[in-house]
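Box 3.1 — From sequence to structure: Protein translocase subunit SecE
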Amino acid sequence: MDNITGKVVKYYSDVVTEMRKVTWPSQEELKDATIVVLSVSGILAVFTFSVDWIINAVIKQFLN
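Predicted structure (token representation):
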């Protein structure tokens, strides 16, 4: 049981050490990245909707 406790303590110690090495983005970088993600998501949503609408229209033509 003591071996498991030691491993858990070492794991969390390693996590804290690695988290201190992390370079966190500034507020401006975070805002810019958020805008990019939302823009790309919107473009992909419009693209997916368009392709779906076109395929749906083509299938309806064949079925009628």
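Summary of the box: The chain is about 90% helix and 0% strand.
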